[in-house]
Specification:
six-stranded mixed beta sheet, 1 helix
Length: 420
């Protein structure tokens, strides 16, 4: 999953490395720019980057020691960095670019199927959908190549396309596209989208995917309900129970965070809260309750109460890193734990005020104290112009039990940081 599970919770569900030794770097892998980068099943990790097909593949699978197990050999093109892969417990991988959706078994170097996308829209990370999780939902955004954004549904086992169409508002008839990975609950997907040609017109769509002929044929889908907001949204929707959390805009520069309840055949806003900054990454669910959000370049991580939106905990990023003021979280926040069970947030951080300050990947123990305690940090490069962290921070464990965090660089390389 692009955000670790179908809820988009960003919960890794593993123990974080105790230290941050740089174990391995694949300098020949392309950067992921601002993409999500890597996903893991605990022993293997699949990473997408801005490959050029002729020289550097867009999809590479590694073991936990940073050795290449398989790469796509140029199958996926330069848009593959925009879409994180999916990886199964058996290590099979599904990934997409602007033209193709593929399923591979890297352990046997087998391409199980390759399917041509019905549109040239830029892909957003594929997600499993259906009560049996046996279909794949792929959302896209309109591309400069003339591809119109669509939703498409595929058979996970065969690669057969089951349905595809533009996401249309059921009342106005306007067409919509998404910049975000859908969140899924069984056969219902939550898609944050903006009207094509009018990004300020945001909608949260609840989309039901059919599983039989009784509702229109397997893989067909329809909008169950929608809730409008001031868009666009820059983060994937987090679902916790019947409540969906996501961001929007508030005025010229401000951000908005909303909670919407799924009432079955309708959605209702439970609360919304204004912030001085916009949001650039999804919220992450705290196992103790609450969601972590970060207004962009404001230097704070906030844990909001799920019921009310009130702030329950605040982490000053610069202070906990032990750096000069100006540092902010700049990637997705991945949630893991210490060996004792305390909650750990892992993310990339860099200064918003000093272009010469080094970027880091850091793990923060937010259960040890209200303001958080530094678990470890690792410098990515001397300054962001050379390289910085991007994406999410999955954990892999090697045969000896050593745990590593894996992430992509914005400009190049795949990094393995953790226990030697």
């Amino acid at each position: 999953m692009a955000h670790c599970d179908s809820r988009m919770s960003d919960n890794v569900g593993m123990v974080a490395p105790a230290v941050a030794v740089r174990v391995a770097i694949d300098r020949d892998s392309p950067g992921a720019r601002g993409g999500l980068g890597c996903v893991s099943n605990g022993t293997l990790v699949a990473c997408t980057g801005a490959g050029d097909q002729a020289a550097r593949p867009g999809l590479v699978v590694y073991d936990a020691d940073g050795r290449r197990v398989w790469d796509d050999g140029g199958l996926l093109g330069p848009t593959s960095w925009l879409s994180a892969a999916m990886i199964s417990s058996l290590g099979q991988v599904i990934a997409a670019d602007q033209q193709w959706l593929v399923r591979v078994d890297p352990l046997t170097s087998t391409t199980m199927w390759v399917a041509a996308k019905p549109d040239l829209g830029t892909p957003i990370s594929p997600v499993p959908v259906g009560l049996q999780q046996d279909m794949v939902l792929l959302a896209t955004k309109t591309s400069t190549a003339g591809g119109t954004a669509e939703l498409s549904v595929w058979d996970m086992h065969t690669g057969a396309m089951l349905s595809h169409k533009v996401l249309v508002h059921p009342v106005t008839g306007a067409s919509y596209e998404t910049l975000n990975t859908p969140s899924v609950r069984g056969a219902r997907a939550y898609v944050l989208a903006s009207a094509i040609g009018n990004s300020n017109d945001g909608q949260l769509f609840a989309v039901d995917v059919c599983e039989s002929a009784a509702c229109g044929g397997r893989g067909s889908f329809q909008v169950a309900w929608h809730v409008g907001f001031d868009g666009p949204s820059s983060a994937s929707p987090l679902r916790s129970g019947d409540r969906i959390f996501f961001d929007g805009l508030q005025g010229w520069r401000g951000g908005l965070y909303l909670a919407v309840d799924d009432l079955g055949d309708a959605g209702a806003i439970a609360w919304q809260r204004s912030f001085s900054g916009r949001f650039g990454a999804s919220s992450a669910h705290d196992p103790r309750g609450g969601l972590w959000v970060a207004p962009w370049q404001k230097g704070r991580l906030l844990r909001l109460n799920e019921a009310t939106g009130a702030t329950e905990q605040l982490v000053d990023v610069s202070a906990v890193l032990g750096e000069a003021p100006g540092y902010s979280q700049v990637t997705a926040v991945s949630v893991s734990s210490t060996a004792a069970g305390s909650v750990v947030l892992t993310f990339g951080a860099q200064s918003a005020t000093d272009a010469f300050a080094p970027p880091y990947v850091a793990a923060i123990d937010v259960g040890a104290a209200p303001g958080g305690v530094l678990h470890w940090k690792n410098q990515v490069s001397p300054r962001p112009k050379f390289n910085a962290a991007t994406g999410q921070m999955p954990i892999v464990i090697n045969a000896s039990g050593a745990r590593r965090v894996v992430f992509k660089g914005t400009r190049s390389s795949t990094y393995f940081v953790g226990e030697p």
